[in-house]
Structure formats: C-alpha cells, structure tokens
Design goal:
Layout lengths: L4 E9 L5 E4 L1 H11 L5 E6 L5 E6 L5 H12 L16 H9 L3 E7 L2 E2 L6 E6 L6 E10 L8
Antiparallel strand pairs: 1-8, 2-7, 3-5, 3-8, 4-7, 5-6
Length: about 150
C-alpha cells in the first residue's frame, strides 16, 4: 500500500571528470514504485557539499554548455580559500550556491511533470569524489483520498 511519504537513495558513480548525469529515468522508476497514480511532489536532494541538482535539456549540448559555464564562472585554480583536495577544489564547494543541491517537482497522476526537453540532472564538478548519493522523496495524497 502506498504511503503519503516515501523516500529512497540512489547510489551514483560520476567518474573522474566533471559530469552532468541524467537522473530522469531513475526518478520515473521511483515514482512507478511509490506514487501509485497519485498527485504530489518529488524532491531530489544530493547531500554533498560539492554537487547540485539541475533541471535542463540534455543530449543537445546544454549539459556541456553548463559545465563550460561553470568552468568559466568557477575556474579550477588557486584563487579559492578552501584549499584541500585537488588544485582548485574550492570551486567545487561554491557550486551548490549556483546549482542548488535540491529540486522539487510536481507529480500528477503518478507521473513527473517535466517540460518536453527537461531532464533531472546531477551536476558534479568534484573529480575527487566519484561516489554520490541522491535522495528521492515523494510526498503525495494519502491513499484514502485518492479517487474521492
């Protein structure tokens, strides 16, 4: 029986390069298991100080454009006060101020409501930490109120 609130954690390996990882399919599978055709909200949260969640088009170059823009805004050099890790790692700790570590999206009839070209993405510029967790949480109508 579906609950009003359900949560699950994805384990993502991002690799040794800056990445934009599409999580849309994982979000949809989570909703199939938990939303049961209900309306509600999906919250996506990455509990890391050096990663964020973005809603953007992927596959047409926008993901590479985002990484290039972040590299321009946050160059990997020695200007950062936060200095442990790889050279320029301090920039990775500023990333969540520009690409927040969370997003909350509407779910209608158990389906994620995204625009035609929108995807849910994990943005990770920290090449020193390749293992990420992403928490998916669905808050929806209680089962008793569905179909009333």
């Amino acid at each position: 029986m579906p609950h009003a609130f359900t949560t699950s954690v994805l384990h993502i390996t991002t690799g040794s390069t800056e990445t934009v990882t599409d999580l849309t399919h994982d979000c949809e599978l989570f909703l199939v298991r938990t939303a049961a055709a209900r309306d509600g909200l999906l919250n996506i949260f990455v509990p890391h100080a050096t990663a964020g969640i973005a809603i953007l088009e992927t596959g047409s170059g926008s993901d590479e454009d985002l990484l290039a823009t972040l590299h321009t805004l946050l160059p990997a050099d020695e200007r950062w006060q936060h200095r442990h890790g790889t050279p320029g790692h301090g920039r990775d700790h500023v990333l969540p101020a520009l690409v927040p570590p969370h997003a909350t999206l509407p779910v209608i009839g158990g389906r994620l409501e995204l625009g035609t070209w929108q995807s849910v993405c994990l943005v990770d510029t920290n090449v020193s930490n390749t293992d990420r967790q992403v928490r998916l949480s669905f808050l929806g109508q209680s089962v008793a109120s569905v179909g009333l």
